[in-house]
Amino acid sequence: MTAVNSLIAVIGTLIVALLVSVWLPGIERKFVQARIQQRVGPPISSAGIMAPIKFFFKETIKPNSPMPRLYNALPIISILSIVFILLFIMPQLYIFAALTSIIAIIGLLKIEEVIYMFMGSLSKSVMSLKMPFPDIVKGAKHPDTPRSFLEELSSLRAFRLIAFGSFPLYIALFVPVAMSKSIYLSGIVAYQQIHGPVLFTLAGMLGAVVFFIGYMILLNEYPFAILKTKADVIEGPLMEYAAKYRAYVYLTRGLLMFVLASLFTTLFLGIPPNLFSWNILVTIGVALIFPILMAVMSAFSPIFTYKQFYPTVAGVSFIGILAIIFSFL
Amino acid sequence: MNKDNKITDRKVIETEVTMGTVHSAAIEPYRVRLFVEDEMVRDAEITIGINHRGVERIMEGLPVEKANSLTEKICGICSNSHIWNSCLVAEKAIGIDVPERAQYIRVIMEELERLHSHMLYLAHGNEVLGHETFAMRLFYIRETVMELLRMIGGNRVQYGASIIGGVRPRCELDEMRIQKIREGMDLTEEKITEFAERFVSDPMIMSRITGVGTLTQKMAIRLDASGPTLRSTGVEKDLRTVMEAYDPFEFDVITQDDGDVKSNLLVRVFEIFEAIKIIRQALNNLPDGKITNRSWEMQDAPITKSYIEVPRGTLYHSYALEDGRVRNSIVRTPSVANIGAMQYAAVGHHITDAQLAIVQCDPCFTCTDRAIQIIKI
Asked: Does pLDDT of A106 surpass 70?
């Protein structure tokens, strides 16, 4: 494959990823969930395409933040980190060995997670402002208590997600590594081309289940949406985003769905995203199946608090560890 | 730690997190200040009166019929309860006999209102739990009852059924309407049974609502909670058992023992079946005769009080009559006491459960926000 062909493949795959990813939030939230809930729901293009377009044309307002420029820059950093993950799992870039290892992928996913912490701590929305008359003048309780913004709560929760919430995903990523005994994506793909997909082994199946739960946690989807639950923190770290910055947030979510699905096909099926191969249809298929499964699961579960979240993560992580042990057998 | 194992007197309170007056978990404006320590609520303060309208002040001096109509505007969910109780005040004060058929129709309207109120409560509770599918399902089931109310009263929200001396002629129940109500009750019972079975057998929901927002029986009595909120703590108190209008009907007073969100939700689920039972009895034994007694004369009367059991608890109305006009009107809704109790119930739980603990008492802030605050500057 020549350098030009590789370049075309990389750019083409990126374009396909973007074109597919904009439909995924619509399929997930509106198309599947609305039908489960026996309501019509808005058009399928609404969440992923029409909403970002609308937001791109809205007036940009300054967010309530101590560092508004940094706050506005965070969704761009987030989307870039996801684009880099997609680039590094493309076979054309396997020549950059260090960057196309599972360690680099995890590092980039961590950037995506850490950004939520920054977003939460930099957002100071009107939702938590003081109301001196009812809060203090009328003789309220604890008048001198320091005030915390709702987004700060989200920031703390983002920290907890980094600390333990994303365990399942990262454990699942190491199942193919353990089987192929290589941390490089090229090695993992090559192993599967010889021995067949990891998914069709016991360890691979368990790993896939754990990966899917990790996928839901990383996407902050119900029932794991502790970062942005309507019952307390509402939109959480994303509360102050408006106009084009909110559009970036929406695009990021769709793209992350596609990228995680691509990562799954690469690690568990040995099929990296490549425009010049019919196998890209498998990647697109998985990218469509995951949101549908996620929508079904989230439609039938209430949101978790730590009381449910900790045992779920611990249980799923345990299954992931079992999968890794099985992969050595 | 106090005697109910609620930590309210801790010296270390880390931060305050404020929710409201506008918040996605609250469908009405109110303000909650939560004092949290590592996301656990150590103390809570609920502020009401954000949207006060001074209905009692507006009622002052109005002709009694107009004042009664105005009470219906206090709340969109229990509008029938308000106008019924307001009419009862005038009927008691002047000594008006209400025809038996009208009493039955009033009871049918009230129980239909209880049905839709409880279903709205369950839907909202599920929404706060994050279970949108159950919430949507309940709204879908509730639609049958809303359509029945529209058929009888002409509106989905404010039916204007009760008037002094009976019910409005347009709310008369003919055979066609009775048949539709019967069919509606059969459908509602079937769907709610299905829902209840799925709801109680869902381990994730049970895990989220069991032991959350617990209000002990002792505290519920001390804080003067009423209605299903009180009954969920095991107190068998329902004003319908002593109300004259409910004398002809057989029904059970539903209680649960734990006083938590689960008990509150289950009390309402079972009360739905009791309401259906009452409506069926009323339809089966609906007496013949007129529905309005117009042979009464307006007269002055001292302050007269009336208490009735509405979907959320005990509703109180009182006023005096002077030249056919209302004087010294007072309305006390059950939410006033219940919301105060929830300030206590929210303590000791995770911050995500705080709104759930508050919502468990089915708070109605439009009902509650009528008090006039006189502010001296």
From this structure: yes
What are the structure tokens assigned to B69, written together? 């109509």
Q: Which two tokens stand for residue B18?
A: 């404020």
Asked: is B15-368 a CATH 1.10.645.10 domain? The reply is yes
- Output the six-digit token pair for A216: 């839901």
Q: A231 and B355 in contact by Cβ < 8 A? A: yes
Of the residues B17, B22, B43, B138, the best mutation for testing chain A's interface (the one with the most A CB atoms within 10 Å of its CB) is: B17
* Chain A residues touching B261 at Cβ < 8 A: none
Q: Evaluate if residue A260 carries a pLDDT over 70.
A: yes
d(CA B88, CA A205): 68
DSSP B296: -
B192-220 b/e with 16+ CB inside 10 Å = b?
beebbeebeebebbebbbeebbbbbbebb
Give burial (CB, 10 Å; 0-12/13-18/19+) of B27: middle
Of A127, A229, A299, the CB nearest to B352: A229
Element (H, E) at B322: strand B313-322
Model confidence band, residue B364 (pLDDT cutoffs 50, 70, 90): confident
pLDDT at B371: 52
Interface probe, candidates B7, B10, B23, B33, chain A, greatest A C-beta count within 10 A: B33
Beta bridge partner(s), residue B167: B162
How many Cα atoms are found within 13 Å in the side-chain-facing hemisphere of B327? 11
A238 has a chain B CB within 8 A of its CB: no
Which pLDDT does position B32 carry in this prediction? 87
Q: Helices B175-200 and B132-153 sit at what angle, rounded to 10 degrees?
A: 170
Question: What whole-number distance in Å separates Cα of residue B220 and Cα of residue B4?
Answer: 12
Give B350's contacts in chain A (Cβ within 8 Å).
305-307
Q: Residue B11: which pLDDT band, with cuts at 50, 70 and 90?
A: low
From the list B140, B205, B351, which residue is nearest A153 (CB)? B351
Which of B13, B47, B127 is opposite residue A134, by nearest beta carbon? B47
- ipTM field: 0.90
Separation between Cα atoms, residue B242 and residue B52, nearest integer Å: 32
Q: Is A147 an interface residue toward B (CB < 8 Å)? A: yes
**Domain ranges in chain B?**
15-368
Return the pLDDT at A186.
Answer: 93
What is the Cα–Cα distance from B313 to B240, expressed in whole angstroms?
Answer: 10
Range 50-69 of B in CB contact (< 8 A) with A: 50
Chain B residues closer than 8 Å to A150 by CB: 17, 19
Distance to chain A for B263, nearest Cα, Å: 18
Q: How do residues A116-131 score in pLDDT, each as one tens digit? A: 999 999 999 888 877 7
CA distances to B219, B228, B360 from B235, rounded to whole Å, are 12, 9, 17
CB contact (8 A) between residue A223 and residue B204: yes
Query: Per this entry, what is the length of chain A?
Result: 329
Q: How big is the CA angle at B297 (ends B291 and B300), to the nearest 5 degrees?
A: 125
Start-end of H helices in B285-364 = 334-345, 351-359
Whole-structure pTM value: 0.92
pLDDT-derived band of residue A146, with 50, 70 and 90 as boundaries? Answer: confident
Q: Tell whether B200 lies on the interface with A, counting CB pairs under 8 A.
A: no
Q: Are B282 and B249 in contact (CB under 8 A)?
A: yes
Q: In A, residues 263-302, which contact B (CB 8 Å cutoff)?
A: 299-302
**Alpha-carbon gap: B17 to the closest alpha carbon of chain A (Å):** 5
